[in-house]
Every structure is written in structure tokens, then in C-alpha cells.
Amino acid sequence: MCGIVGCVLKNDKVAPILLDSISKLEYRGYDSIGLATACDGKINLKKDAGKIDEVNSKLNFAEMPGNYGIAHVRWATHGDPSKENSHPHLNSAGTIAVVHNGIIENYLAIKEDLISEGYEFKSDTDTEVIPHLLDKFMKEGLDLEKAVRKVIGVIEGAYALAAICTDEPNKVVATRKDSPLIVGIGEDEYFVASDSPAILKYTNNIAYLDKGDIVILTEDGVTFKDENDKVIKKEIDVLDWSPEMAEKEGYDHFMIKEINEQDVAIRNTLGEKKKIKAIVDDVKGTINRVVFVACGTSYHASLTGKYLIESLVGIPTEVLLASEFKYSAKALNDQTLVIFISQSGETADTLKALDAANEVSKTLAIVNVRGSSATRRADYVIQTQAGPEIGVAATKTYVSQLIAIYLFSALLADDEELLKRLEKVPDYIDEVLKKQGIIREISHLYKRDKDAFFIGRGFSYPIALEGALKLKEISYIHAEGYAAGELKHGPIALIDEHIPVVVVAPPGEDYKKIMSNLQEVKARGADILGIGAKGDKDLIDESDNVFLINPEVDDILAPLVYIVPLQLLSYHVSVIRKLDPDKPKNLAKCVTVE
Ligand code: M6R
User: Fold this and answer.
1) pLDDT digits (tens, 9 = 90+) for 443-488
2) Which of 179, 318, 332, 483 has its CA 20 to 30 Å from the CA of residue 168?
3) Would you call 589 a catalytic residue per the annotation?
4) Residue 490, C-beta contacts closer than 8 angstroms, at least 6 positions apart
5) Helix or strand run (H / E) with residue 96
6) Strands 171-177 and 214-218
7) Ligand 1 atom closest to Cα of 369?
8) Is 2 an active-site residue?
9) At what angle do helices 262-270 and 425-434 cross, to 10 degrees?
10) Which protein residues touch ligand 1 with a CB less than 6 Å away?
11) Which atom of ligand 1 is nearest to the CA of 394?
12) pTM for the whole thing?
């Protein structure tokens, strides 16, 4: 939650660059925005609640003077979205400014102490303790960097923060623990940011901070210090992502752009096969149990992993929600492989579980964001190659996670035939994308619905769950994904002529059973949207509307392809309902709090 940027330039005005960079992080939080720049011994501060464009048209951030500064987009945790609670926060003298991402768990005790010492607070945030602590420590004689070091000895919780101070011009000091922060090293321009899309336009040279590292940006370059205060060198990762990858490139929204990039994302992730094979060779024969751990959409990818590993390899496999992991952690041992799935690699629940699993078991992380915390903590890493995903709804990262899981499972099972079939998946997705106009038309029929059901069996059950999650998060229509066989054990009581039911019915061993389940809901009046194979006459006859897919995509491959029309459905329903699919209310792309 929240995005931060800090920047020092040698010869240029910083505000337009801060504004541009922070706009690329709007997916991390969009209830308020603020910038602080400094020059001539004075901090200039502009901030307010609202989306970036709205606030910018009122405040005109770009005209702020100064060649160094910090910026923030907020997803409120402590205190409602308001001007006062927006970042940056200042000390009382207005000489220190701070932006922060994360939660300071002991802020109330610190706040009480500071108030008793005469400090006055203007906001309800946990963050505001930081500028006051910095003020206190600098008054005791510390410079900004040493004061930041002392602050991180006092605050508890998860954070990434950046600070500037007029007493030390042309400098940004930043640090992190548990919330992400990367460093960008350009030519005469130096950055810190929550994520690389913020700075891709300016530099591809990225360094990653470890917990407790401090980075000092000045006009002359970047200095890194580790948690023991020793100057260290950092490896520079030269990202092969282009700035356009973080732009809409003519699409109305990032979500539809990213849905349309799924064939490429899969093709690129298939290129990781050799690296995945090396991991498989290492773990093969040493494990007798697999546990997947993830949240949200990544949890649905994990459920497909369970079906794959159990059916192809026969190793008992469980899937746990990361937030519930600790209740099962005691059952792990050194013959368990724990697989963590996370597009961001920064989800707090997932990282907490990863740390616990590392103590007893082998761990593998399947992650899209390079250099993210999960990639630095797991024993093995599979890097999905979806490129930057900006839309809050996970789409191309989801299919990339899936293809990585398919590769891993097929290699573990030595299933050459499946490995061959996977090569054709990008073409199947391409065929679906070519027919996306059909889904756009169908979406109009669902725009006024309040509820919807999605049903599937076996490999199609996670498709139903993911289709329902997409619809609710992007369109705000209440949607339930159900194992089709489970419907008659309760939820069928809700079915009537007002409830649409999306039936995921690919060819395969469950086909006849899912068609019986279709009949059960149809008999109760439900409106049926069938997703099935081209030429499936029964499905066409029994459904009110259908979307048809290449019949070579059977139940085993269905999770990779059948999800695409459901993503498109949620996108178009959202747009028709005049919502913003890229920034659904109350959500953020990266959930760094437990
Ligand atoms: O970054 P992660 O994959 O760990 O994120 C997990 C969930 O927060 C995420 O999948 C969430 O459910 C998305 N909004 C789904 O579109």
C-alpha cells in the first residue's frame, strides 16, 4: 500500500519528474497525493486527498521549485483520506519532510512520549511520528542520516521511508524494512521508489535495498550503508523493461492492455523452462509433500497447482491461504516443498509465511517483480516474465504464474506430451483475444446484475473462483465461484431467474457432470453463460449465451485459456458501469500489511 518516490537531480527541476514518477505508482494507492521539494532553505509542500489528476489540476505540482524532493500516493491505513493525513508529513518547524509506506505498530506510544515533550501533531497518521523523531534526534546533534538510523531503532512494524531536510540540501535519505524500496541510478539523476515502473523512463539501472540498509542520494551519486552502518557496494540490475511497458500505449486502461499481453507473457515465461528444470532436478526425489501458499488470485493459481501435481506426479499437495498459514506451519518438515506464489513478491501475509517455512522446509517463490522481497528470501525462485503489471486486477501475471506451475509440474512428472502442448497455449489465447468483441457485447447483458455465480469442476473450479473474484473486484457485482457439484448442498437455494450462472465447461472427463449441473440451475430459472469448446452443440443449445474456444483446449489446459473471456467480462462490465477497472475502490496492487 502507498507508493513513494524520492529524487535528487544535478541541474534540473525535480517536481515534474516526481509527479511523473509517482503517477506510475498510482496503482499502489489512490486516495491522496503529495509532493515536497526544497530550495533556498525552504520546504515547499503540496498535498491533498483525491486522485492524482484531480489534485494536480487544483495544485499544479509541476511548478514547485527545487532540484530534490519526495512524493507519495496513499492507501489510507491510519486516518481517513484527507489533506491533513496525506503525505509528506513535516516537523513543526517545516524543515524536515517524510514519506512512508507501511505501518508503524508502536506509533501510539511514541506519539504519547513526543506529545509529553511538547511536539504537536496535525494528523491521525502513524507516519507523523517520524518527522518529529528526526527533529528530536537532529536537535540532539545527529545529521539526517544518523537520525534516520536512530529512528529505525525506535519504530516497529513494516516500512519504507524517505526524508529530506533543509539543513542538508540536495540530499534524500531513505531506508526500508518489509516494505519495498528500490534505488535508480541514472546520469545526474538518482531515485528511490516503491517499484521500478516509477523510474523506467529515467533509468534501467536498479539496485535493491535489504532490510535495514540506508541509501543516501545526493547530486553526486548514491551511497549505500548496511544495517551495521558500513558503506557497501550494491549489484546493479539492468532491467530489460522499456518505459512503454508502464504506459497504456493507446488502450483505455492498463487492465485491457494487460489482458491483451497475455499471449506474450506466456511465451516469455515458457522461456524460463531451462531454469525451472534445474530447480526440478534439485528437488526431485527429496520431497514427499508440496504446500502452496498465496493470497487472492495467486491462491487460485495455487489451486490449479494442486490439481496438476496430484494428478501428474501423485505427491500429496495442499493449498493454504497465506494469512491462515501459521495454523498449519507446525506440520511442515524438511521433505516438504513450500511454494509461494505472488506477483508482487511483497505481500505481507505471504512473506510472513515464507519466513516461517524457511526455518524447516525447502521454499520456492514464483514471483513477477524482480528483486522483490520474496525473491531474496526463498531457496529457489521462478521469475515469471509478464513485464510490469499496473492494473490492480492481476491478469497477465496470473496466467504467467499458471504457466510456471504447469512447467514445474510437467517437468517433475517428465510429461513430455504436456510440455509440448504448453507451447501452443499462446496461440489459443491469441484466438480468444481475436474474438473479444463477442464478450464486450455479452457484457451489456450483465451490467445491471447484483449477483452472479461461476461454476466449474476439477481444473475448472479455480477458473470459476478467479472469474468470480475478477467480477467482484472490478465491477462490484457480488459473485460466487463454486465447485459445481457443491451447489446443490446449499447455494442452489439462491438460484432464480435473476441470477446469471457462468458455466465453465471445457471438453474432458468432467464434461457430462458439469452439463448436469448446468441443467440443475437452468431448471431454477438461471440465465446461463456457457464457456466451452467450439462445436459443442449441447452447450450452445442449453445456454442463453456462449463463448466458444478452440476444442484442443481440454480440461487440463483450460485454466490457462478459459480465464481470458472471464477477465474480459469483468473488464467490460466495469467499463459499462462507468467504473475505473484499473483502480477499484478500497484495493491496492500490493498489500504490504497483514
Ligand atoms: O502480489 P500477490 O500476488 O501476492 O497479491 C495477492 C493478492 O493480493 C492479489 O492477487 C489480489 O487478489 C488481486 N487484486 C487480484 O486481482
Assistant:
1) 999 888 789 999 999 999 999 999 999 999 999 999 999 999 999 9
2) 179
3) yes
4) none
5) strand 96-104
6) antiparallel
7) 1
8) yes
9) 180
10) 295-298, 342-344, 347, 350, 392-394, 473, 587, 590-591
11) 16
12) 0.89
